[in-house]
Design brief:
By secondary structure, the protein is an alpha/beta fold. Helix content is about 45%, strand content about 10%. It is built from 16 helices and 16 strands. α2 packs parallel to α3 and α14 packs across α16. The longest helix is centred in the N-terminal third of the chain and has 47 residues. It is elongated.
Length: about 525
């Protein structure tokens, strides 16, 4: 599975690291066997954070240390938060046609329960919550005043309409007065929101309309994916249009009985986490709509290796927080980004340009990706996702530039050095995407591998050489009797072989190629080792 991608298009070599390789901690000397890797273990190497400015990078390093989580987890949540802070305000122009890329970003992290993702998320999201709280307190008096004024206007309208029933009432004049009063009633003033954790598609539309057509979905859990899959709909189907359009900023209009919403350029950022078992079900049954629609290909998946938690001698000692100086700097600078004013109604987002060298590097990377996703190429399996990566590269570059220059971001060009760092980050994300979308595409075969694994453990026999063996044809006859049983059996064998659980017995007449499942296979003896070192 270790692949070296062709670099003929320039942009530097992209090495796809076997996501399982790093979990092999021990190789038995003079043996074919590696330490067997559990079927549940799928991950890719962690992400570099060099592209972030130092005020974010310092924070992410401490966040990872204090919450005992991979650095990439905080990085993914932060990218989504940066998207919310800057979307609608800036867009990146790469100098190609009329291409203008917004800076909103969609990420999800696949992590098991109890791995610290909630600790990391709650630490980061406080920066949004504190801002929302301050804005709400500042607007409280104005909100109460407007609500009182609206109530009084409505009472006057009720009084005028009640008088209209009398014979001496001038209906035409009363109607004009009622119309004037209704015109004075303002929309309900509400404190601004930066994010939601859970909202139906209808409520999501409203949140966008109430917040300058900008919103983020942030959560350490996967509830919003359930909403997208139709959790709250009677027919089990959700309206995906608003989510799809809020990624690209396409106009959206809803005209229904008692409900009218007009959005000209909605943009949303997503930063969520999902448990592996929940993620694996996204391609099943009606849930598959969010995969088939292309919605999932808009996300950047992140599937890290779990960190082995090391306990101090005194387990009751609470973990210290992030250094106050680093935390305060992060909060203050992040708040400045959130407070950058939106363009006026007549203006587009402010344009950020690439330097000449940055544009050259970007175009080379764009060509490079196009080659890798061709039929037969190493990224063909995630072609839909890879098609979006040039635009996502611009989003990341724009975010990093805004994080460094703030309100002056449109007065400087994105540098070649920054573009190079962003490209390396995008390259590091690709193995995560390969694993994630393979999990969705082949979930049936993952369960087949588990089915084969349990049968092998129960039926493997010792041969004359002391090897545990089984017949692949017996496996197929007992576990894969369907019309596509041969293919499913072969895929299961390939999965188990890749994990060092089984290996094909060498046969000069057949070689080592996995063909029809009629060969003899060996089973890793480590699976049969008892606690005292013996075999059972």
């Amino acid at each position: 599975m270790i692949q070296q991608l062709d670099d003929s298009a320039g942009g530097g070599a992209l090495q796809l690291i076997d996501p399982l390789k790093d979990s092999i901690e021990e190789i038995v000397p003079e043996s074919r066997w590696k330490t067997p890797i559990p079927l549940s273990d799928k991950y890719a190497p962690d992400l570099p954070i060099d592209m972030f400015p130092d005020w974010i990078r310092d924070y992410l390093k401490q966040l990872a240390e204090k919450t005992e989580t991979p650095q990439g987890l905080g990085a993914m949540f932060t990218l989504s938060m940066l998207g919310r802070a800057a979307q609608q305000k800036f867009a990146v122009y790469p100098g190609i046609g009329d291409w203008l890329e917004p800076v909103n970003v969609w990420t999800f992290s696949v992590m098991k329960p109890g791995t610290g993702k909630s600790r990391a998320f709650n630490t980061l999201i406080k920066n949004f919550e504190n801002w929302q709280k301050r804005k709400s307190e500042a607007l409280r008096a104005d909100i109460e005043e407007q609500n009182a004024r609206n109530r009084m206007y409505k009472k006057r309208i009720d009084t005028l309409e009640a008088k209209a029933a009398s014979d001496d009432c001038d209906i035409d004049q009363t109607a004009k007065e009622v119309a004037k009063l209704k015109a004075k009633i303002s929309n309900v003033l509400k404190a601004p929101k930066l994010y939601t954790a859970d909202a139906t598609s209808e409520r999501f539309e409203t949140l966008l309309a109430e917040n300058d057509e900008s919103m983020a979905v942030m959560s350490p859990e996967s509830g919003m994916l359930g909403v997208m899959c139709g959790m709250y709909n009677r027919n089990g189907e959700s309206n995906l249009d608003i989510y799809l359009k809020s990624h690209s900023g396409d106009p959206h209009q809803t005209d229904r009985m008692g409900r009218n919403v007009q959005l000209n350029h909605p943009l949303a950022s997503f930063g969520i986490s999902v448990q592996p078992k929940v993620f694996a079900k996204l391609a099943a049954g009606r849930n598959s709509r969010i995969v088939d629609s292309g919605l999932m290909s808009r996300f950047h998946p992140y599937i890290p290796k779990e960190i082995d938690e090391s306990l101090d001698d005194d387990e009751s000692t609470e973990m210290s927080g992030i250094d106050p100086t680093i935390a305060t700097r992060f909060e203050n600078l992040f708040e400045r980004l959130i407070d950058i004013p939106l363009p006026t109604d007549s203006q587009e987002p402010r344009h950020i340009f690439l330097s000449d060298d940055a544009r050259t590097a970007f175009k080379a990377f764009k060509r490079y990706l196009a080659i890798q996703r061709r039929p037969g190429g190493p990224l063909e399996a995630i072609e839909d996702h890879v098609r979006r990566l040039p635009g996502e590269t611009l989003k990341f570059a724009g975010q990093m530039h805004i994080a460094e220059h703030g309100n002056q971001a449109d007065t400087e060009c994105i540098s070649a050095d920054k573009m190079s760092q962003v490209i390396e980050f995008v390259k590091a994300l690709i193995p995560h995407a390969l694993i994630a979308f393979e999990m969705l595409e082949s979930q049936k075969y993952s369960s087949d591998a588990e089915r084969a694994y349990s049968w092998i453990l129960a039926n493997a026999k010792l041969d004359g050489d002391g090897n545990f063996t089984f017949s692949a044809s017996s496996l197929q006859q007992n576990r894969f009797k369907s019309d596509d049983g041969t293919k499913r059996c072969i895929d299961a064998l390939r999965e188990l072989q890749m994990r060092g659980i089984i290996d094909q017995l060498e046969d000069a007449s057949r070689g080592r190629r996995i063909g029809r499942p009629s060969s003899i296979w060996l089973v890793n003896p480590a699976l049969f080792q008892s606690a005292d070192g013996g075999s059972h």
